[in-house]
Amino acid sequence: MIDLTGKNALVTGIANNRSIAWGIAQQLHKAGANLGITFLKDEKGKHERKVAELVEPLNPSLYLPCNVQDESEIESTFQTIADKWGKLDILIHCLAFAGKDELSGDFTNTSRQGFSNALDISAYSLVRLCAAAKPLMAEGGSIVTLTYLGGVRVVPNYNVMGIAKAALEMNVRYLAAELGPLNIRVNAISSGPIRTLASSAVGGILDMIHHVEEVAPLRRTVTQQEVGNAAAFLCSNLASGITGQVLYVDAGYEIMGM
Ligand SMILES: NC(=O)c1ccc[n+]([C@@H]2O[C@H](COP(=O)([O-])OP(=O)(O)OC[C@H]3O[C@@H](n4cnc5c(N)ncnc54)[C@H](O)[C@@H]3O)[C@@H](O)[C@H]2O)c1
């Protein structure tokens, strides 16, 4: 039984009830963690209301806007954690972005701006959030990010997001090496394809899911809840010896050659 009682967990990346971060937040809550949830503001405040309604049953004690490209929102998120919680135990980095134009067709068509935006939001943000979390993790902590096989192998249309995931996975190793002496563990979960808002921007995502359903040892893809279970494990004392790793939660697809 995973027990996260007394742990303060910040979960980023919930957009709706299909989000992987939603699956993770539910499992952390079930394990007893005290949750803080961040959302991405939009002009009309629609996201803020929608996500607030969704997460209400999990009783988050913090609910904050945090656009990872906005320094003032990052600073105010972590200042609020310092003021209200005093310490942070768990950070879930579950966000990524690339323009739809960059997620289909030829990789050589990637624009300079599209490349740097995807890398900034999807990879650099982990470094930035870890820097902000570090002083709040004086008692140690666990940081989990989300990656995909397209950061290791070529997956049609994944394009610049594959480069961002490769950078993200290397971030995990450098961060784990730096933060390990402080007993802060940093790991990634490489999830199998799941239908979400972000994945629907990737050209041919349904074909990818059908392919996994045919080929993966478990003959299916995974659910948000399964990824959430793995995240809860990585955040718990049961995973106290694990850092700097990429854990595949993909119904076994990654081992297959054909
Ligand atoms: N769905 C999949 O098949 C799959 C597979 C492997 C890994 N992942 C990864 O899982 C993570 C979550 O994606 P998802 O599939 O649940 O989709 P999602 O659309 O539900 O979540 C993506 C989140 O990123 C947030 N985001 C985008 N730009 C942001 C910014 N500037 N600041 C803060 N937040 C921002 C969005 O608000 C959204 O909540 C991503 O890192 C994604 O690459 C997804």
Please outline the helices and strands:
Layout: E1 8-11, H1 20-30, E2 34-39, H2 46-55, E3 62-65, H3 71-84, E4 90-93, H4 112-133, E5 141-147, H5 159-179, E6 184-191, H6 205-215, H7 224-235, E7 246-249
Parallel strand pairs: 1-2, 1-4, 2-3, 4-5, 5-6, 6-7
Residues 13-15, 18-21, 40, 66-69, 94-97, 121, 146-148, 191, 193-194, 196-199 line the site of nicotinamide-adenine-dinucleotide.
Radius of gyration: 17 Å
Approximate helicity band = 25-40%
* Residue runs with pLDDT of under 50 for 5 or more positions: none
Return the average pLDDT rounded to an integer: 98
Number of strands: 7
- Largest sheet, strands/sense/barrel: 7 strands, parallel
H-E string = EHEHEHEHEHEHHE
The helix-and-strand class reads: alpha/beta
> Which strand order does the major sheet show?
3-2-1-4-5-6-7
Q: What ligands does this structure carry?
A: nicotinamide-adenine-dinucleotide
Percent of sequence in beta strands: 5-15%
Pathway: Lipid metabolism
Catalytic activity: a 2,3-saturated acyl-[ACP] + NAD(+) = a (2E)-enoyl-[ACP] + NADH + H(+)
Keywords: Fatty acid biosynthesis, Fatty acid metabolism, Lipid biosynthesis, Lipid metabolism, NAD, Oxidoreductase
Family: Belongs to the short-chain dehydrogenases/reductases (SDR) family. FabI subfamily.
Task: Write a compact overview of the structure shown.
The protein contains 7 helices and 7 strands; from the N terminus they run βαβαβαβαβαβααβ.
